[in-house]
Amino acid sequence: MHRRYRDGVRGDPRPFFLAGRGRGGVLLLHGFTGTPFEMSLLGRALAERGFSVAAPLLAGHGLDVRALAATGWPEWLASAEAALLDLVEQLRGEPLAVVGLSMGGLLALELCRRHPDLLRAACFLATPLWLPSWQMRGIGALGRLRGISLPKLAGSDVRDRAMGQANPATPRMPITCLLSLCELMKVVRGRLGEVDRPALLAHAVHDHTVPYACLGELARGLGTPRADLRCLSLPRSFHLITLDVEREVLFAAIGDHLTRYLGAAR
What is the CA radius of gyration of the chain? Predict the structure, then answer.
């Protein structure tokens, strides 16, 4: 049974590890300005199915805007890669997978490209290959003002009101980090064909943060064989699909995907 959050209850932003029953390990990567809380309910669901799960706190993240502003995508990727290598060391011989949400999906794509020998499967959730052109132009124009950060006026992009209030995300977005995120999108988009891991792609139709059309572009660009590629569209959720109203549907799809490919790897 997953914890139900009431109005005003804040979630835990700390990294976590949950030991499984030898069915394999899963690295869970949160999104931009987020924390491992975004992956906590998914982590419990996967642990219940016997997987060991690790959710690191990416470099610069964890509520402090100044700390986040001092980092960029190379640091975010380095912390994700270090967490993967730690999981390899901890679960010697067990097959591994990676699941990334939003920016975490971009990092997961790059980890799969760099370490196909370590990762047997992946799930890319609400992954931004690009943003609407007007947003990209605005970020570029504001990039000259290096010291500013933009407030998240609408809060977390999630339909579930209680989960949105519980989500302990950084309340502002440094413009330097937004520029770095856009650079990461471009880098990853140019390398999609090099990623060939069995993949589940999931995206909410009414995502207000990342265009739903990114799902189709990602599916077309991946080097994954079509027989090993599945797409899941969620008609009721918003961007943070691991916290939102269709999360149980998503968790079941992820669990089935990982069971198929990590089990086969064994």
Answer: 17
Domain of 147, in residue numbers = 16-265
Full-model pTM: 0.95
Domain of residue 155, CATH code: 3.40.50.1820
Number of structural domains in the chain: 1
How would you classify the pairing of strands 96-101 and 16-18?
unpaired
DSSP letter for each residue of 148-216:
-EEE-TT-S--S-HHHHHH----SEEEHHHHHHHHHHHHHHHTTGGG--S-EEEEEETT-SSS-THHHH
Confidence of residue 209 (pLDDT cuts 50, 70, 90): very high
- One-letter amino acid for residue 36 of the chain: P
Three-class SS of residue 125?
strand
Residue 3 within any structural domain of the chain: no
Chain segment 28-87, per-residue pLDDT in tens: 999 999 999 999 999 999 999 999 999 999 999 987 899 999 999 999 999 999 999 999
